[in-house]
Design brief:
This protein is mostly helical. The chain has a domain of about 50 residues. The chain is built from two helices and no strands. Helix 1 packs antiparallel against helix 2. The longest helix has 28 residues. It is rod-shaped. It starts with 13 loop residues before the first helix and ends with a helix.
Length: about 80
């Protein structure tokens, strides 16, 4: 028994669009963190550790979003 020939998916397939959409949604936490950084850095008080941890987590989530978008365009 032979395997039927399956045509490759076109480059603009729905999977790529979904990956770009999910990647764009994952960029939002990093954008919010960037918006609020000046509010915390302008005060003379030290930045609380919980805020720093939230920023780091937000930027990691955004990095995953960037990786998904790059993967979708390279595919």
């Amino acid at each position: 028994m032979s395997v039927p020939d399956v045509p490759p998916t076109p480059p603009g397939s729905w999977v790529g669009r979904v990956l770009v959409l999910i990647g764009g949604l994952l960029l939002l936490p990093g954008v919010c963190a960037l918006i609020f950084i000046p509010e915390y850095t302008s005060s003379p008080d030290p930045i609380p550790d919980s805020i720093m941890q939230a920023w780091i987590i937000s930027f990691i989530i955004s990095a995953v979003g960037i990786a998904l978008i790059v993967y979708a365009f390279r595919r």
